[in-house]
Amino acid sequence: MTIKKIILLFIFITVVSFKSQKENAFAAGEWFKFRIHYEIVNAGYATLEVKDATVNNKNVFRVIGRGYTTGVSKLFFNVNDLYESYIDKETGNPYQFIRKIDEGGYTKNQEGFFNQAENEILVKDHKHFTEKSFAIPKNAQDILSSFYYLRNYPSIDKMKPGEFVAIDMFFDDTTTKFRLKFIGREDIRTKFGVISTMVFRPIVQTGRVFKEEESLTIWISDDDNKLPIRIKASLLVGSIKADLEAFKGLKYPFKVKVK
Questions:
Q1: How many other CB atoms are found less than 10 A from the CB of residue 253?
Q2: Nearest CA to 225 among 205, 248, 251, 199?
Q3: Cα–Cα dist 84/36, whole Å
Q4: pLDDT classification of 9: cutoffs 50, 70, 90
Q5: For 29-78, how does the pLDDT look when each residue is reduced to its tens digit (9 = 90+)?
Q6: Tens of pLDDT along 178-211?
């Protein structure tokens, strides 16, 4: 995996977050921005936005994710990616995803259409003009809907250190089990002040990119929003850090212990 791919991974893993209540943790109008650093270099940004939309005469959430490199980083790996997901407001399951990426000349232009009743997905490749269906598990998510589905995951606040949460995620024609380990709670200092957080570690594959299975650490705000605040990773070569840079339209008050 190249550094470019690692940056892309961080652009979208930084948005993983959770909510223990039954109602949605987010609403139309919510917007996040994240700053991505590779070592001391400002490598890029990621944004996520929630809007209202209609699919088959049903009101849904339309989530739009953008990731891009900036400054000096563009000279080495120019990333300009767009991800979208149309999500059922009640079940949290996706109806459709859109993936348009340009990573240093490597491009993809795909749409996926979920049939949750039949446990399958139809993927249309607009670049190669092909269509293909894949079998998927019940309640399977796409890469973007996964993060919003987890925000409403039940009983996340009751987890004990060492316990896991997992979902099935469809990406690149394959369904994988996305697993997160709960580490504990910690107060961290940010640009917004001191934030109480819950700490998680995704289980990653070692050998090619990461030093250990638990090389990634994510800090999530310990409030009703469950915002991703910070992420760090130790790589075989260097390290990456991502921080929440800006936000607006939150459904719940953002809690800061000390400014």
A1: 9
A2: 251
A3: 20
A4: low
A5: 999 999 988 777 788 899 999 999 999 889 999 999 998 888 766 666 78
A6: 888 899 999 999 999 999 999 988 775 444 444 4
The number of beta carbons lying within 10 Å of the beta carbon of residue 24 is 18
What distance in Å separates the CA atoms of residue 154 and residue 19, rounded to the nearest whole number?
7
90 token code pair: 């009640």
Residue type, 100: K
- CB neighbours of residue 1 within 10 Å: 13
Stretch 128-156: mean pLDDT, rounded?
A: 89
| pTM exceeds 0.85 for this model | no
Q: In three state form, how does the secondary structure of the chain look?
A: CCHHHHHHHHHHHCCCCCCCCCCCCCCCCCEEEEEEEECCEEEEEEEEEEEEEEECCEEEEEEEEEEEECCCHHHHCCEEEEEEEEEECCCCCEEEEEEEEEECCEEEEEEEEEECCCCEEEEEECCCCEEEEEECCCCCEEHHHHHHHHHCCCCHHHCCCCCEEEEEEEECCEEEEEEEEEEEEEEEEECCEEEEEEEEEECCCECCCECCCCCEEEEEECCCCCCEEEEEEEECCCEEEEEEEEEECCCCCCCCCEC
